[in-house]
Every structure is written in structure tokens, then in C-alpha cells.
Write a structure and sequence with these properties.
Order of helices and strands: HHHHHHHH
Number of strands: 0
Number of helices: 8
Distance between the termini: 43 Å
Largest sheet: none
Structural class: mainly alpha
Radius of gyration: 19 Å
Length: 190
């Protein structure tokens, strides 16, 4: 069989979500809006800030794994063996995804994953709030009872920033430029 006549396309979650946005007609509108109305430095600031926020949240959870495990159990959504795995793996996932945003490495995939995490957080927090629970969500380490409506609002804001970062399709600058070799100068560039 002629290799030129058979094109195999790699399908990833990014391709599927891009195609879905195109199918419902939002992709061209959102792409034009993003590139015209949100300046590249603002997007870089949002990417850098959200990345640092998730790294910080992950580090706080890693420093107190028992406290975060208790927070996960307090939601009463998953049982103990699974809750222990969530308490161990979720902080590291947040750190890795946050670093991917900061250093602009597969940042669209990182934004998509963080958006999914935020959506899961919103659902869990909303269920706890709907059941009238008073708990420490563990979002930023063990800090005592969480104001659930405020945390839901913050996670919704983080979800929107993740969506903006995911939809931003500006040309990516090379990560091997001289400015990136000097330190954070390359990190904050668009």
C-alpha cells in the first residue's frame, strides 16, 4: 500500500476539543476574539499566575499529606483506599501541570487538564455546599473550614482562565531562544 495515499491522523483530546468547538461554530469566533482583544502580555500573565497558583497549592498539599487526605475524606465522595491515592497523586499533578503552564510546555494540554480538575473541584464543592457540610476543602493546605461559595467562585474563575489559555492559539515562541536561556525572560514572553 502506498504510504502517501494513507494518512493516519493522531487523535488527542486537544484535537477532539478543537473539533468540537469548530463543530458548534465557536472556534473561529473565540480565536478572533482572543487574538484581537486580549493582549499577549495579559495572556502570559494569566498563564504565569495560574501556573504559580497551582504549584503553590500542590506544594502546600505535599507538605501535609495527612491533612489533605482528611480533607478528601471529608467530602464523602470516594472511599478510603481511593482517597489515599487522590491525596498522594493530586498534589503532584497540580505541581506538574502548573509548571507546564509557567514554562509554556504543552500548556494547552495543561490548561485543559487543569480546567477539568477545576470542574471536578466545583462539582465536589457544590455537592458539599448543597448538603450543608462545613469542611476544610484542602485547596490550599489545611486552613480550617472553607467558605464554600467563595471557593466555588474562585474555582469558576480558575476554570475560565483555563478556558482562555486553552483557546489561545497565538504562535508559540521557541523555548530554545536566547532569552529563555537567561532565565525567566523567556517564561514571561508570549
Amino acid at each position: 500500500m502506498d504510504q502517501g495515499s494513507c494518512k493516519i491522523e493522531q487523535v488527542t483530546i486537544l484535537h477532539v476539543s478543537d473539533r468540537f468547538l469548530a463543530w458548534i461554530g465557536l472556534k473561529p469566533i473565540l480565536s478572533i476574539w482572543m487574538t484581537r482583544w486580549i493582549p499577549a502580555p495579559v495572556m502570559a500573565y494569566l498563564r504565569f499566575t495560574l501556573g504559580n497558583l497551582f504549584v503553590w497549592a500542590g506544594v502546600l498539599k505535599v507538605k501535609d499529606p495527612q491533612g489533605f487526605h482528611e480533607s478528601v475524606l471529608a467530602f464523602e465522595l470516594i472511599v478510603n483506599p481511593l482517597a489515599a491515592w487522590v491525596a498522594i497523586l493530586l498534589p503532584w499533578l497540580e505541581i506538574v501541570l502548573g509548571l507546564a503552564l509557567i514554562f509554556k510546555l504543552v500548556y494547552r494540554a495543561a490548561a485543559l487538564c487543569l480546567g477539568g480538575l477545576n470542574l471536578a473541584f466545583i462539582v465536589a464543592l457544590s455537592l458539599a455546599w448543597g448538603q450543608g457540610k462545613t469542611l476544610d476543602c484542602g485547596c490550599f493546605g489545611s486552613q480550617g473550614p472553607t467558605n464554600l461559595p467563595l471557593q466555588i467562585a474562585l474555582d469558576t474563575l480558575f476554570l475560565l482562565v483555563c478556558a482562555l489559555l486553552f483557546l489561545d492559539e497565538r504562535p508559540r515562541s521557541s523555548s530554545l531562544t536566547p532569552s529563555s536561556a537567561r532565565g525567566l525572560g523567556g517564561v514571561l514572553s508570549s
